[in-house]
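S.,

As promised, the zinc ion run. Input:
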Amino acid sequence: MYQILYGMSKNKAKYPIRLTALILALGTIPLVLLSSFGTKKRYVHHKDFNVTHIKQGFANVYVAQQGDKIVMIDSGNPEKSHDLESRLLNMGINPKSIEYLILTHAHPDHAGNARYFQEKYGMQILSGIGEKEIIANQGEDGNLCPIGFMGTMVGKTIAKERYAPFETDIYIKDEFDLKTLGFDGIIVPFPGHTPGSLIVYLGDAVFVGDIIRGKTLNKKKPTRHLFVCDFDQNLANIEAISKLKGVKHWYPGHGGPLVQEDVKQFINKEKSK
Ligand SMILES: [Zn+2]
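Predicted complex:
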């Protein structure tokens, strides 16, 4: 053992240095672990922007920052505004600094706190024009197609929740260049999960709402969302997104994040069924 740990060199003068280095290295591990738990800002750095991933219940909220421009993507479950607000603050993000809230779609677990952030922080809300009816009905969607037991359960619980009414500031009808808002990226409508579902496409990342999700336990593995009415159309949407130039990282509304290779594997698997 001595030989293995300390006997690699015949130069005895090096042994104490190696031993000290080993002790220091081992001593550093708990410090690194402690400091990573204590870190408040946990974002993923992309080439021109950072993404902060906030879990609000089973739903994901994302904050993308590009220079001094910040957008929030989705807003969590109804009546969880204070929870989301404190999660943002804990991550070192002041909601006052967020100018825009982009809704991937208007289901309750995505648009849940839109009104609160619009009213309190003056965030401007962007949503697909096809979401008008769901927004007018405060999240109610009469056309849900639940898959399996979990879909049925969620359809009877979370999907039944309603949010406070809000007004959309900018309706998205076609591809929308975020440069008009000072942000380098685009919004692309992908109707399917809902009539006005859209994705936010920033550099090598896509924020895709409920077009796909991460598995419940194995969160980084892609699977179908719990509500899919048209499987072929859904897969066509996923495939079209996978072909957008430079896409590597997928940020879904539930679970994730996903990587492009896994999504491609998922597409091939679904196609072979
Ligand atoms: Zn949804």
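The first strand starts at residue 43 and ends at 45. The chain has two domains: 2-36, 43-271.

- D.
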